[in-house]
C-alpha cells in the first residue's frame, strides 16, 4: 500500500481530428508503446505508436467496422491490444456483425496480418494475450445480456482464426466488462472477470496449458453488496499475481502467491 513514486514524462495527443475514448495500450519488446482507441462517433478503431517519452512513431486505422455499444450503460470496450514477443502488437475487436476480428502489426506500424475473422458468432468485450511462442489466447462474452463467456486459442499468428475454443468453466462472466488475461512465462493462463449476478463477486481461474483441460477456479476472491468491476491482472518479476479492480470509486489491489 506504499506509493513508490514516479515521474510523468510527457503528454501526447494521439489524434486531434476526432474525440477519442477507451484507450488500451501495451509496451512492445523495443520499449515503445502501442495504443488503440475509438473515436466518439463510433465505428473506427485507430492505433498510435509512441516512444516512452511521448514522441510519435506511427499511427493508422485498424478497422472501420468496430461495433460500438451504448457507453452510457456499458463498462467494457469492444477491442483490446497486446504486445507480441517477436515484436509488434496484435489487436482484437468486435465487428459490426458481432464477430471477433484481429490484426497484427510490426513495431513500426506495418500491417503483418490484416483484418481476419477469428470467430463467427456473437462475441463482445474481448481481451487478448500471447504465449511465449505468440500463440494468442482470447476471451470474449458470447451473449450481450447473460453470464456466458468463452476462451479461444489462435495459433499461426492469428492467421487461421481460433483453432481451439471452450466455454469458461466459471460462468460468472458478465458481458458488460472485459475479462482480463495473464499468460506467464511457463504459459499458464490466468483469466479474471466479474459476476454481476446476485453474488456480485470478482473471480479468476487458471489453465495449466493450452489444452485448457487442467483448470482451477477461484470464484469468491472479492464479494461486495454492490458490483466490483474493471478487473486487471498482472504478474511481478518473482511470480506473485496482482489483481486490480474498482469498487465504489476506489481502486483496490490484491496480491496472491503463484
Describe what is shown at a glance:
With 258 residues, this protein is mostly beta strands.
Describe the overall structure.
By secondary structure, the protein is an all-beta fold. It has no helices and 19 strands. The strands form five sheets. A four-stranded antiparallel sheet has the order 1-2-3-4, with no helix packed on it. A four-stranded antiparallel sheet has the order 5-6-7-8, with no helix packed on it. A four-stranded antiparallel sheet has the order 9-10-11-12, with no helix packed on it. The protein starts with 19 loop residues before the first strand and ends with a strand. The model is unreliable at 171-176 (pLDDT under 50).
Largest sheet features: 4 strands, antiparallel
Percent range for β-strand residues: over 45%
State the share of residues found in helices, binned by percent: under 10%
Taking all Cα atoms into account, the compactness measure Rg is: 17 Å
Total helical segments: 0
Distance between the termini: 20 Å
Q: Report mean pLDDT, rounded to a whole number.
A: 75
Helix and strand sequence: EEEEEEEEEEEEEEEEEEE
By DSSP, the count of extended strands is 19
Question: What are the low-pLDDT stretches, counting only 5+ consecutive residues below 50?
Answer: 171-176
Oligomer: single chain
Structural class: mainly beta
Principal-axis shape: globular
Strand order across the largest sheet:
1-2-3-4
Name the features.
258 residues; mainly beta; 4-stranded antiparallel β-sheet; 0% helix; globular
Amino acid at each position: 500500500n506504499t506509493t513508490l513514486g514516479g515521474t510523468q514524462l510527457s503528454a501526447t495527443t494521439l489524434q486531434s481530428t476526432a474525440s477519442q475514448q477507451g484507450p488500451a495500450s501495451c509496451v512492445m519488446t523495443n520499449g515503445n508503446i502501442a495504443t488503440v482507441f475509438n473515436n466518439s462517433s463510433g465505428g473506427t478503431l485507430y492505433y498510435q505508436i509512441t516512444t516512452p517519452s511521448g514522441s510519435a512513431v506511427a499511427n493508422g486505422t485498424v478497422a472501420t467496422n468496430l461495433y460500438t455499444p451504448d457507453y452510457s450503460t456499458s463498462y467494457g470496450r469492444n477491442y483490446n491490444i497486446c504486445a507480441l514477443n517477436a515484436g509488434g502488437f496484435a489487436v482484437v475487436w468486435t465487428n459490426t456483425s458481432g464477430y471477433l476480428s484481429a490484426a497484427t502489426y510490426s513495431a513500426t506500424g506495418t500491417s503483418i496480418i490484416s483484418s481476419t475473422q477469428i470467430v463467427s458468432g456473437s462475441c463482445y468485450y474481448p481481451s487478448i494475450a500471447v504465449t511465449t511462442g505468440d500463440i494468442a489466447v482470447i476471451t470474449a462474452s458470447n451473449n450481450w445480456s447473460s453470464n456466458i463467456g468463452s476462451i479461444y486459442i489462435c495459433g499461426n499468428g492469428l492467421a487461421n482464426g481460433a483453432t481451439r475454443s471452450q466455454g469458461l468453466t466459471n460462468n460468472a462472466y458478465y458481458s458488460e466488462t472485459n475479462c482480463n488475461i495473464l499468460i506467464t512465462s511457463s504459459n499458464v493462463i490466468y483469466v479474471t472477470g466479474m459476476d454481476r449476478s446476485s453474488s456480485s463477486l470478482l473471480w479468476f481461474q487458471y489453465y495449466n496449458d493450452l489444452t485448457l483441460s487442467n483448470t482451477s477456479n477461484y470464484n469468491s476472491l472479492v464479494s461486495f453488496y454492490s458490483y466490483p468491476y474493471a478487473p486487471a491482472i498482472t504478474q511481478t518479476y518473482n511470480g506473485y499475481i496482482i489483481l486490480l479492480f474498482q469498487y465504489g470509486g476506489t481502486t483496490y489491489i490484491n496480491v496472491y502467491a503463484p
